[in-house]
Design brief:
The chain is built from 3 helices and 11 strands; from the N terminus they run ββααβαββββββββ. The chain has a single domain, classed as Jelly Rolls (Sandwich). A hairpin with a 2-residue loop joins β1 and β2.
């Protein structure tokens, strides 16, 4: 399903996880959480609290047991998101640039930012491995801020998307987004995939 938020197309879908990944889910999630426990807290200049990420270690996810099965589970949804977010590139495909995981514990948040690049032919997707009812929501911000700059925005400039286990949310790379404070006592675990639009020769489409 496509949501139109502040002029941006946002793809939101509830994934039907297949058995091939389901048998790895517990060990895959445990690997992410264990690795995150050895990572430093995200820079506290943004007051994120106990939020940890593997973003600085791009090879971490694809070495984990269960990652390949997860990607195969998500593939048809990623293809659908590509078709809806990039309708003018019907013959193009996506190549995975990097993937990482965020683990949010109670009291943590992720402040506003965007993944800007020279080209907008990139797609960011968030898949929730664990998002207990009442988890921190994912917000789309009405802003054209640059990169990892962080700002506060009035409530009417943020539209929230509730987070659920096995939900997939995709958007193009220049969309400013934020995650509100996670107040649930149980953790919230998300896998993020950054993908680039490529042609039949696997060359990035500018």
């Amino acid at each position: 399903m496509i949501k139109n938020i502040f002029g941006h197309k946002i793809y939101v879908s509830q994934v039907k996880v297949n058995e091939a990944f389901e048998k790895y889910r517990t060990v895959f999630t445990k690997q992410i959480v264990n690795v995150s426990n050895y990572l430093p807290l995200i820079a506290n200049r943004e007051g994120r609290g106990d939020s940890r990420t593997t973003v600085a270690r791009p090879d971490t996810l694809n070495r984990m047991v269960g990652y390949t099965a997860l990607f195969k589970t998500l593939q048809p949804y990623l293809d659908e998101a590509r078709a809806q977010l990039f309708p003018d590139n019907t013959t193009a495909k996506f190549a995975l640039i990097r993937g990482w995981a965020n683990v949010m514990h109670s009291g943590s948040s992720i402040t506003s930012h965007a993944h800007r690049r020279i080209s907008n032919n990139y797609m960011l997707c968030v898949f929730y491995l664990e998002a207990p009812e009442g988890s921190a929501r994912f917000g789309i911000v009405n802003s054209e801020m640059y990169g990892l700059e962080s700002h506060e925005y009035p409530a009417d400039q943020i539209q929230w998307i509730p987070s659920f286990t096995d939900q997939l949310v995709c958007h193009v790379n220049d969309v400013t987004h934020v995650v509100e404070k996670h107040l649930h006592p149980d953790r919230r675990v998300a896998v993020i995939l950054e993908m680039a639009l490529v042609d039949e020769n696997n060359q990035h489409i500018e």
